What we know:
The protein has 444 residues and is an alpha+beta fold. It is 64% helix and 16% strand. Strands 2-3-5-6 form a four-stranded antiparallel β-sheet, with no helix packed on it. A two-stranded parallel ribbon has the order 1-4. Helix 4 runs antiparallel to helix 7. The N terminus is likely disordered.
Amino acid sequence: MKKRVISGLTILVIIFLPFYASAQETYDLKRVLETGLEHNYDIRIVRNEQQITDNNVTLGNAGILPTLDVNAGYNGSLSNIDQQSVENVTINYRNIFNQGANIGLNLNWTVFDGFRMQTEYKRLKEFQQMGEITTRLTIENLIASLTSEYYNYVRQNLRLKNLKYAVSLSKERLRIVEARYNIGSMSRLDLQQARVDFNADSSNLIKQYEVVNTSAIVLNQLMALENVAQKLQICDTIIDTDKGLNQPALWEKTTEANSRLLLSQKNKTLSELDLKAVQSRNYPYLKLNAGYGYTLNLYDTDNSNTKRQNTLGPNYGFTLGYSLFDGFNRKREQKNVRIVIQNRELEQQQLELSLKADLSKMWTAYQNNLELADLEEENLEAAHENYDIAMERYRLGELSGIELREAQNSLLEAEERLLQAQYNTKLCEISLLQISGQITSYLE
């Protein structure tokens, strides 16, 4: 049995030692975030999309600038012509080949269209700002995901450390039992139970190595690193939380900087611009056109005094118009757009209420987990002292193996509860900062 235990530990070392020995670089939270923001595919995609909205903000795209076209053309006809005069004289022409060619410049410019062009330019600027906010929202989501997984990786490494400690405690107990069994002061049942407990702790340790490995892979994937299976050596050995958050200040920041709320406000602004675009049809419009061209016509008929005609020169004009009646469509569209604006206002109010509810729930969870973490720290100190006393009594033969195991489990559970409370507090902190638009402070 002893040989099987040693063999199992040897396999454990062989499997996981290469993974944990491959660490070369050390990461802290700031470096993790900077790496993710540089390489993450979602961030790169959304930044490219933002460049498209930036490129679209031009006077020409809004229709404010004139258009200038150059065109050229050629046409020809091959005809048979039969003519009959009033004197009943018939004239026939066969294979008459007429040709025409032209080339010219054409300028078209909408001078006034009821401020529709100016409204469209404002819309393009709003879309540009929405692109920036969307990029910011994607960045905030990535920072939240990376920060959460980073501290999960810290937590799993701390659990790994605790489980290693548990294995060392079980190994010490097994050593004591084996020594007493060899001198006949303990039964084989005690020896077997000590070995079972030692193997159970070793099994939990093996499983925890896998959990740590999985967390590292998720973190590498979020950072878009090529070697997703590489070991991450991190600086943090504790889950540090910010205990100085203030609820009124968080809500004030939320109303000012929450990305979802800013996007909702932009949607409302776009609807208001849609109304202005529809209202522009209440005004007349003025369009100018000008051109300069050359035209050549060649005639292949004997009954015409003109064989060739050239035209060269400018042309110009303007169009002034006003829609007198369009079947009441303008009135209908304006009513509909006003209803859309009302819906945008309601959606914004609904979002504000939802954010207030989320902030309130997270704040309560944040405070509760802070208290739980403080309580579990006290419990952990008591559990350590309790186990030290139990081990001393066990060495003196005053305590059974079952009672020692209970003390050991109590210690491990206290460590796990503390880690869970600290991690939950960190998750609440991340959510509060994300809601209030301050999550980029982790980059500082």
